[in-house]
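User: For my dataset I need records formatted as: sequence, then structure tokens, nothing else. Please produce one.
Assistant:
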Amino acid sequence: MDVRSRLRGCLTADQRGLLERLYVEVGPRLVAYVRHAYGLSEDAEDIVAETFCRAARNIVALSASQRRDLYLVTIVRNLCRDRFRRVRPQARAADALAQRPVTDVQPPHALAGHEQVVNLRDAVHGLPAGLREVVVLRLSTGLKFEEIAELLHVPLGTALSRMHAALERLRETLGDHHEC
């Protein structure tokens, strides 16, 4: 019996509808967050699926939450952190290099754009964890700074200052001619 079948029997129609609606509304942002924040491109959809399985197991808490999207982001962050701790940093770096597309068959203008994207991605991944997380939460999930502060359990000013510091570091790393 697969997970979907088991959950179908445990949840009411309203609960299943809630999960399905959240999956459609929030799921793509969660996948983007996992890919950008943790570089887990191939595992992103599996992690998001596990997020919704955990949410289903805690459906009462999810239903009672006033900010269901933040509830789901918290679950996905915890799953990513667990996975991130288990994988050696060298293996992650090797995987990231292996996932980069071959660029020698692309036209020159595509190479320049691809190089900028790779440079920006590498610069974001090079940020300290606290700064990187604010940037990625803001850009990939579209959360407001108030929501990011709540999620990270920090004051609003701290979330804003982390974003400012991250942008300054990105400008230094990428040069002043790039816009962040």
